[in-house]
Amino acid sequence: MFLEAGLLTRRSVRKFDPDKKISDADMADVLKIAMYAPSGCNKQSWRFVVVDDAKRKEELMQNHPHIAFLREAAAGIVVCGDTNSQCDEGFWVLDCATATQNLLLALHGKGLGGCWCAVYPYVDRMAAFQRVLNLPDNIKPLAIVVAGYPAQIPPQPQNRYSPDKVHHNQW
Ligand SMILES: Cc1cc2nc3c(=O)[nH]c(=O)nc-3n(C[C@H](O)[C@H](O)[C@H](O)COP(=O)(O)O)c2cc1C
After folding, report:
1. CATH number reported for the structural domain that contains residue 96 in this entry
2. pLDDT tens-digit series, residues 45-70
């Protein structure tokens, strides 16, 4: 069942096979699954910019300190929020976060890999992505999901279930 076989085995992938592209059908599937995420007032304020052009990837890499592995990856999927479409002030961040998690799980479910790399809340990265991708003012970049076929599957995480982080009825 995906709950156990999938949710518990997803890891951030940072090494990719440079020779394998993501098919258009697979890309459409994972974006579809991202768009089935929950969102405030069901406004679905997420927007996506798929970057697979080598030159554009390099430009993004120059403006983010932790995405050198984008070079070998098939694509960077920049998850953005439309502040004109959000339920209320600040909801674009939450909508984009749920979509990003769905996207990561969808990639994993297809045998692809991905890594959420933070753009928001770093104002310098946000401004640079805004410029490089020619985003209108109302379109805010939250994250770049670096995606592709894994060249290396990270080891499984140690147990993360901590009952001591759960409180009942009061703190
Ligand atoms: C909000 C957020 C920001 C992150 N930013 C980065 C990043 O900039 N670069 C990176 O390599 N990984 C980034 N990650 C991935 C985390 O490092 C990773 O999820 C965490 O170490 C747990 O590992 P796992 O995803 O393999 O379970 C980010 C994850 C989240 C949720």
Report:
1. 3.40.109.10
2. 999 999 999 999 999 999 999 999 99
